[in-house]
From TrEMBL:
Annotated ranges, domain AB hydrolase-1: 3-88
Pfam assignment, any one: Abhydrolase_1
Keyword Hydrolase: yes
Keywords assigned: Hydrolase
Assigned EC number: 3.3.2.10
Keyword flag Hydrolase: yes
GO MF term list: epoxide hydrolase activity; hydrolase activity
Protein name per UniProt: Putative epoxide hydrolase
UniProt family annotation: Belongs to the AB hydrolase superfamily. Epoxide hydrolase family.
Length: 111
């Protein structure tokens, strides 16, 4: 991120809700991808940015895809690294799918 500003680009790396040095919401209902997308939208509004070139990595990829799906007018382009996009299956719930593939001991299935 240090080289991009030197080339004339603006970079932003926000601490997302519940991550790093932020407070974790007490209710899981306040900690959905929708809340995080709205948080990012508000950040862009506060910075006066109408559109962004969004780069995400690992777990941030899911947030970035949802940002693009929910607010397509705010995105110039998207680069997601390390994780492929898999659209939601309207018939099968994600945890059920993971349980079938990975079993009950898979870390996500334990919650």
């Amino acid at each position: 991120m240090l080289h991009l500003p030197a080339a004339g680009y603006r970079t932003i790396a926000p601490d997302l809700r519940g991550y790093v040095r932020t407070n974790t919401p007490t209710s899981t209902a306040d900690y959905t991808v929708f809340h995080i997308v709205i948080d990012l939208m508000c950040l862009l509004d506060a910075l006066g940015l109408n559109q962004v070139f969004l780069v995400a990595y690992n777990w941030g990829a899911s947030i970035a895809w949802n940002f693009c799906l929910l607010l397509p007018n705010r995105i110039k382009a998207l680069v997601n690294m390390s994780v492929v996009f898999r659209p939601r299956n309207p018939v099968r719930k994600p945890i059920e799918s993971m349980r079938k593939v990975f079993g009950n001991d898979y870390y996500i299935c334990r919650f």
